[in-house]
Design brief:
Region (Disordered): 1-38
Keywords: Membrane, Transmembrane, Transmembrane helix
Transmembrane segments: 78-106, 112-132
Strand content: under 5%
Distance between the termini: 66 Å
Number of strands: 0
Radius of gyration: 40 Å
Low-confidence stretches: 21-28
Order of helices and strands: HHHH
Shape: rod-shaped
Oligomer: single chain
Helix content: over 70%
């Protein structure tokens, strides 16, 4: 209730160091037009990188789904072939090889040549089935997706550098 001036805190600090901090401190950013341009450029690059990254992720997700469908289809075929080979393969091999062995025996009148034909035909059929299974196993997996992910990671790493 006094008529005099009461000062709760100095509005202006007489300390020169405090005045210097007030001018150069983080309370007000400097008015440098080059700095804001660099910041805008960096933000634009970051936004472009994120846009590119999201497009890559969508493409990789779609590629993963396609390879998953292909892998499942090849796996189903492979399992079906494995199951079919047990009963049908045995019966077919014995009858086919036996028939050819008898045919060779009929023409050569040699049991040894007929039996050798029987065995060679069985071996060749099993080898051809193994090669077909190897071909189907090559379709299993996600090699293209892995390659795309590695390429995307390398591109993102180069963009960030």
């Amino acid at each position: 209730m006094g008529n005099g001036k009461k000062s709760h805190g100095p509005s202006e600090n007489s300390d020169p160091a405090a005045q210097q901090r007030g001018r150069d401190g983080s309370s007000e950013p400097p008015e440098d037009p080059g700095a804001s341009g660099g910041l805008e450029e960096t933000l634009a690059r970051a936004e472009a990188t994120l846009t590119l990254l999201s497009a890559w992720l969508r493409n990789i997700q779609q590629l993963f789904q396609l390879e998953l469908e292909r892998t499942l289809a090849a796996g189903k075929r492979l399992i079906f072939l494995q199951l079919m080979l047990v009963p049908l393969g045995t019966a077919l091999l014995v009858s086919f090889c036996g028939g050819l062995g008898l045919l060779i025996y009929y023409f050569t009148q040699s049991v040894y040549i007929g039996f050798a034909t029987f065995l060679l035909i069985q071996i060749s059929i099993f080898i051809s089935i193994l090669f077909y299974q190897r071909k189907l196993r090559a379709l299993l997996g996600f090699e293209e997706t892995k390659r795309q992910v590695r390429e995307a990671l390398n591109d993102v790493a180069e963009t960030i550098k």
